Amino acid sequence: MEYQRFIASKVNWLTDPLNRLASWAGDGDCCQWEGVVCNNVTGHVQELNLRSFPPPLLKYFSIEAQYEAAIQSYAQAMFGGKINPSLLDLKHLFYLDLSYNNFGLFPIPEFLGSLKSLRYLNLFSAGFGELIPPQIGNLSNLHYLNHGGFGYNFLFANNLQWLSSLPLLRVLDLSGVDLSNAFDLLEVTNKITSLSELWLSHCSLGFIPPTPNTNFSSLATLDLSFNSFENALIPSWVFGYQNLVALNLSANGFQGPIPIGLQNMTSLKHLDLSANNFNSSIPNWLYSFSHLRFLNLSKNLLQGTITSSIRIASITFIFDISKDQTCSREQIHKGKFGPKIHDPNPKMAT
């Protein structure tokens, strides 16, 4: 069957420290094996889930030694090795998840671009390195593509023209990928009219040439956090995406007043402007964002008072008075904004 050479070669390429794939042995029904999902009718392997687990977070440990022990356990649980071309024997595979592993900074295999049935490819924090192979652009059926990682990873791309061959793409995560030389980013992603989520945090974005027309009518989520944009100004093209539901512009060193260009983005439910150098008062138009449920203005240099009209039902309002010294403490101490809770999820909820 299609899976036999792939399964037989598993021991030759996949390191499995905890023997999580002990079921991958013998001549039994592979559809019962860990991480394998088959079509109920044909028996073809359709999904392969070889993800490990997200790393532990320091903030959840009161003792540093416990955190270090958790990190060691985490490192020992990851799959590793080198991806074998026998994966190509799975002709009907449409779902492949290799996230949270350690593939030793080997390049992403070019032959992954031959898995033409793939609709879902998740390589988030998988430990790959070097250039993202343009052969990924051959996966014209992809709906979900994740090359991201926590903070900066070891992947880079000098151009993204291959993305224009993915017309069905809905979710694209390149967080942590070095895109400092990918000046065609906006030009290319603008052509993917189906795109609903675009994650670009920690991408070393300095300057992105704008395009005269934008087709991001379907874009709901945009994350541009932790970049260093030229002139410390929010790129003007961001304001054209008026259907956004979630926008993260945190930790970019943006300066000056909160830009008026945001005022037409009234569909926003999640807005994060934290860790910048905005120095104005909170503009009146922001209070009219009736859909807003998460607003983070912490770690800025905001001035003035906060009107009570910002009391929107169920909103999570994050405002760090230790940094914003010139804002009125009275409004905040009265508890009108609810508890100061930071979202533990690294992704924005839409």
UniProtKB/TrEMBL annotation:
Subcellular location, record wording: Membrane
Pfam families: LRR_1, LRRNT_2
Membrane-protein topology: Single-pass type I membrane protein
Keyword Lyase: no
SUPFAM superfamilies named among the record's database cross-references: L domain-like
Gene3D superfamilies: Ribonuclease Inhibitor
One cellular-component annotation, GO: membrane
Record's keyword terms, sorted: Glycoprotein, Leucine-rich repeat, Membrane, Receptor, Repeat, Signal, Transmembrane, Transmembrane helix
InterPro entries: Leu-rich_rpt, LRR_dom_sf, LRR_N_plant-typ, RLP23-like
Leucine-rich repeat-containing N-terminal plant-type domain: residues covered: 14-39
Primary location class: membrane
PANTHER family reported in the protein's UniProt record: LRR RECEPTOR-LIKE KINASE, LRR RECEPTOR-LIKE SERINE_THREONINE-PROTEIN KINASE FLS2
Record's protein name: Leucine-rich repeat-containing N-terminal plant-type domain-containing protein
Source species of the chain: Quercus rubra (Northern red oak)
Organismal lineage: Eukaryota, Viridiplantae, Streptophyta, Embryophyta, Tracheophyta
